[in-house]
Structures are given as structure tokens and as C-alpha cells.
Design goal:
Chain lengths: 336, 336
DNA sequence: GCGTTTTCTGCAATCGATTGCAAAATTGAT
DNA sequence: ATCAATTTTGCAATCGATTGCAGAAAACGC
């Protein structure tokens, strides 16, 4: 049986026959402590399985060593998001933060009022905040950003926006996707997604730009306004196909939406990609495993998480970092 | 412009012209404080946007009001899991904990030694721990559970196991899945998954039991030992089909695996479900959107999260709760 | 108006660490 | 052996809250 575990630093000090100051310094490798006592105390600590109380430590040091990651469940999101895209980003964030010795406090918020972010920032529970997705909360984000520096947001950097947003260049992504279909000779290309959401709006703008660039007139009727996070892509596409049997391409705003569309096409007897080419967005983990595997626009979330965390730490150190939009890339598989 | 925000309770006390005790009590709705001063102080607090420092509060109260949710990345898991199943459970856990006023500390751990769990439990950062998946860490879990009560694990309740595991009845799930295929008249049914992992082993046992019950002899060669979390289902199934063209059903250990198998079948020109019926496991969010939509065994993760959290809170209160395995259910869609 | 209850408020200790400053112990020089 | 210089240790304040106990104020009875 190993020695009983010790509650706090004072207990350990008593056992070692020294003051708490000495123990604290020894454990912190302070040069004020002789090598002899340092090793003796370190040995005792290990022996008794002692660890500092992080809460007390952080209180004294005026920090928390924790970062809040917020998933706001606003207009666009259903009650229970489990969007694989968001979850993948979350995983990368967890890694990036852990690597830097920070804890990740996961918070899902249904924004009832416009104070949810303030509550979080002044509660003293975290040293910084990462918000995943702007949802319909841009105003709240802007207001808080004016007063609270260590805040970064995954999303689209809009004009006149006050908060630091990091994400991929959605306009470019939409353009890439559409240009790819155009390059395949497709001309009647539908857009599946709701442009009201900031990111999707930008992708739609890219879609329009690509069409214009190829001399194809965009038809408003080829827009399928799918709620983000909704699972209605299948039904929406099925009904749409009845009215527009002549389309030959679909630019989907997410891989999940693309999957729904593919199923609708498949059930309507339209081959993918022969009859209708479908391109997704995100390149989520399962995109390579659908039938057929999805051609899609990849957002490198490993890189995204790195950028988010890097910007956040700069901000925690006092520098107001600018927004970033990095380039997405086309991933060729079989659906287009 | 609103009044400048106040740093701490003492500042607010100064402004109100009372002691910190009074402010603290007023904010806590203590009956020791007169209605008059209580409302006056509450008003001041709102006006100045004051909030208690939670770290200090929790230190004083000897708690953290936070729960660690651990994703151990052991043998079976790739470096970056983003298994939709786990992520869905995580979402529900976040809701269940938030509802009870607790924070969720997300921790991904690659178990390098056998002390990772001890480090977490004695760091004082959390009031309890939920581990998602036993991975290859059963020994560590058992050892810690002997000493640290507020610990619950999502997973299979094995015999002789010391820790509290909560999950679905995997044996029953495997049986259900297999029985369904048998009911469809299928006889040459393959199992796609690695029985070495506890949960999968149980599902495989159920598979064998169902075969035996129907008088079908199980063939060891019909086992496709897919690493859990791996993305190799496609390749594995494709190669397997070459050697075993005669199968007419596949019981997959996860929906993700089922997707890979369906693609392999599709590319081999075998229709699903006509030629080969495929049944998945989990019923993850996208299972309804594959082509064809997956027939699968549903694990109700909302219920699972509720059970995990309920057990954890009982344990935090001092009661050693037993392991629980609740029933999974068959979800009929189109793949089998 | 005065003593007694009852109601309110404040002092000071506490949670478990860190750290500036002063005191003690050690070392070295003479 | 004595004293100065240096190294090592400890006292006590601090981070921002909560709370037992005692004292002040208010309410009450006579």
C-alpha cells in the first residue's frame, strides 16, 4: 500500500518539516531553493501522489488556464447540432489547446438574450473565448469584441465587422465548386443552401460570380434555400427535381446537404455524376465514404483550429489580430 | 454609456457603502439581508454589470462546478477521432451538464502511461469525470474507480469490472441486427468489426447467438476485423467480396463502417439491399441520409447521456451506482 | 424613556495556492 | 573566533469570494 495521499500544500510542508513557501518554490523549480531540499520535496510529493490544486493556483495567479469554446445555437441551428463539421473542428481545437496546456470548456448556448457572451467573459471562468459560427449573433459578437480582446470567432469576415473572424474564403470556395461543374460542361447548376447565413451567402456569391464568368445566366429559381443544419436536403431536392428535371449540376453548401441531394437523385433514377454532378462543401470525414464518394470543397480544419488558437493567444497577450480568410481547396472524388 | 464595470465584490461593497459580507449575502438571497438593501445592491450589480468571480467562489466552496469529459485515444482510435457517434454523445452530455449548472471540460487523452486519470482526478479542476469509451484502459479505470467515486464510463459492463459503465446492451444489439437479416432470409452473413474491442466483442457474441438460434453455422472466415475508428471498411469489404462473392448480408459494427461497405458493394455491382443486405450500428445523424438510408441498431444517446450524468451526480453525492446496459432498438430504413 | 428582543450588518477567518521582504543559516575571509 | 557576504527559508499579505459569530440598529413592551 502506498502512503496516504495528501490534501494540500500545507500538509506536504508539515511532512517535509518546512514552510509552505519552500514547498511551493520547490515544486515550481525556483532557484531560491537548494538542490537538496528541492529533490527531497519532489520525492515526497511523488511518493504521496501530491498535486497542486489548480483552482487555488489559478486564483492566485489571476488566470484560469481554460478557454471557452462556444457553440451558439441560433436561428440556423436545430436544438441538437451534431454537425460533423463543427465536431471535427472541436476535436482539433481540443488538441491545439491541450498542447498549450489549456483546458477546453465546452459551452452550448441557445441565445435567449444578448447577454450570454458578457456573462461568459466576466464570469472569470476562462481566459479567452472561441465562438464557433456566427449564427445570428454578429451584433453581440461585435459589441463584446469592442470591450473584450481575447475573443475569436470561426466564421466569415464581413465588412464593417468588429470581431476577429477566422475561416476559409467562402466566396472563393463557392466559385471553385461552381467553376468545377462548369468545367465539366454543366450549365444548369442549382445551389443548395440558404444564402441568409453569412458563410453560405458568400459561397452563393462565389457561385454567381463563377456563372457570370462563364457567361451563364443565373436563374433565381435554381436556388434551394436549405436551412443550415437542417436535414431537409433530401425532401427539398426531391421536390425540386419534379419542377426542374433539367438540371445537370448541384452545388451544395455542405457535405451533409450533398448527401441528401444524392439520395434524392438516386431515388429519382438520376445517376450521379453522369446525369447530375453534385459537389459538396467541407470535406467532413465521411465525405470519402459516401456512394459515390463526394467531390467537395475542403476546409482544412486542422489549419483552422491552429489559426484560431494562435490568434486567441496573441489577443490574450494584448494584440488585436485581424480577421483571416484562408483558401479552401477542391477535392476530386467521384460525385462530380 | 453604461457605468464602468466593477472588478470584484469589494468594489461593489465600497460603492454601495456596505461590507463585502452584506453584498455577498444580498447576491445570494440570504434571508439575513433586509429586502431594502438586497434590492438596492442587486440594482447596483446589474447597473455595473457585476458578476461574481466563479473561480474564487468555487475555491471557497470547495468545488469546481465542472465535469471532465474524457476521450481516451487508445489502441483502437486513430489520432484524430471525430467519430460522429462520440460527438453526438458529447453534445447531449454538454446539454445535460449545462442544465444542471455544470461546466464541461473536454479532454482528449492519448494514454501514454497509466496515470493520466489520476492526474485528472486529483488536480482539483473537476468535481467528477465521465470517460467516453473504455478503449484499452479498463485496468486504469478499475484502479481509479476503487479510490475515486465520481467516475462513470460510457461502455460495456464487463464481468468482474470495478468501474461503473453505462451503455447499451451490445450483445442484444448484435443479436437484433443479425436476427433481422436472418428474418429477411439471409444465411451467409458477414460481421464487419473487430471483436477485440469490448463493445464490438459483445455485438459479435450477439451475432453468433442469433446465428446459432437460427441453426446457421457461423463461419470464422466471414469475420472482417475492422479496426474501430478506422476508415478501412471500404477496402476491407472490397477485398473480402473478391474472396467471398456469395455473402448476402453484412452486420456492421458501426454506421460509418456500413457506409464503407455499401460503397464497396455498390462499386462491385452488388445491389443493396437486394443482393446484399447491410445493417449498421449506432444510428448516427447521417444514417438517415445515406444512399440507401441505413437500417441500423439505434443507441439512444440522449438517454445514454442522461443516465451517465444521473449516475455521476449520485456518485458525487456518495452513492456507488451500478453499471447499466439499456436496450438498443432496430431502426428500419432501406439498406436491409 | 429604558430595557429587552429581534433584525440587520460587519469583522475576521477560511479555501489553497504564490511571492515580496525580512530573518536565519551557511559560507568564506581574515 | 568574528564579521561580512551569500544562500536558504519563513512570515504574512494576497487573489476573490463565503460564513460563524458578535456587535449595532431597529422594533417592541412597559
Amino acid at each position: 500500500m502506498t502512503a496516504p495521499s495528501i490534501g494540500n500544500l500545507a500538509d506536504l510542508a508539515r511532512i517535509a518539516g518546512v514552510s509552505t513557501s519552500t514547498v511551493s518554490r520547490a515544486l515550481a523549480d525556483s532557484p531560491l531553493i537548494s538542490e537538496k531540499t528541492r529533490t527531497r520535496i519532489a520525492e515526497l510529493a511523488r511518493e504521496h501522489g501530491f498535486q497542486l490544486n489548480q483552482v487555488a493556483r489559478n486564483l492566485r495567479l489571476g488566470r484560469t488556464q481554460a478557454i471557452a469554446v462556444v457553440l451558439p445555437l441560433g436561428d440556423e441551428s436545430a436544438q441538437h447540432v451534431s454537425d460533423p463539421f463543427i465536431m471535427t473542428l472541436l476535436g482539433f481545437l481540443a488538441d491545439a489547446l491541450t498542447e498549450r496546456g489549456y483546458d477546453l470548456l465546452l459551452t452550448r448556448i441557445v441565445p435567449a438574450d444578448d447577454k450570454w457572451l458578457d456573462r461568459l467573459t466576466i464570469s472569470g471562468r476562462v481566459d479567452g473565448v472561441i465562438v464557433i459560427g456566427q449564427s445570428d449573433q454578429r451584433a453581440v459578437l461585435d459589441r463584446t469584441a469592442a470591450r473584450y480582446l481575447p475573443l475569436v470567432v470561426w466564421g466569415e469576415a464581413g465588412i464593417g465587422q468588429k470581431h476577429c473572424a477566422i475561416g476559409t474564403d467562402n466566396r472563393e470556395g463557392g466559385r471553385l465548386a461552381t467553376a468545377h461543374l462548369l468545367g465539366l460542361g454543366r450549365r444548369r447548376i442549382a445551389f443548395l443552401g440558404n444564402p441568409a447565413a453569412p458563410e453560405i451567402g458568400a459561397r452563393h456569391a462565389g457561385y454567381l460570380a463563377a456563372l457570370a464568368g462563364a457567361g451563364v445566366t443565373a436563374e433565381p429559381s435554381l436556388l434551394l434555400p436549405l436551412q443550415l443544419g437542417s436535414e431537409a436536403a433530401f425532401g427539398l431536392t426531391r421536390d425540386f427535381l419534379a419542377a426542374h428535371p433539367d438540371i445537370d449540376g448541384i452545388v451544395a453548401a455542405s457535405d451533409v446537404a450533398a448527401m441528401g441531394a444524392i439520395r434524392a437523385l438516386s431515388e429519382a433514377g438520376r445517376a450521379v455524376p453522369e446525369a447530375v454532378a453534385v459537389i459538396g462543401y467541407d470535406d467532413v470525414p465521411f465525405a470519402a465514404h459516401t456512394t459515390p464518394p463526394l467531390t467537395t470543397i475542403r476546409q482544412d480544419l486542422g489549419k483552422g483550429a491552429e489559426l484560431l488558437v494562435a490568434a486567441l493567444f496573441e489577443r490574450m497577450a494584448g494584440t488585436a489580430t485581424p480577421s483571416v480568410a484562408f483558401a479552401p481547396e477542391l477535392v476530386l472524388r467521384a460525385s462530380a
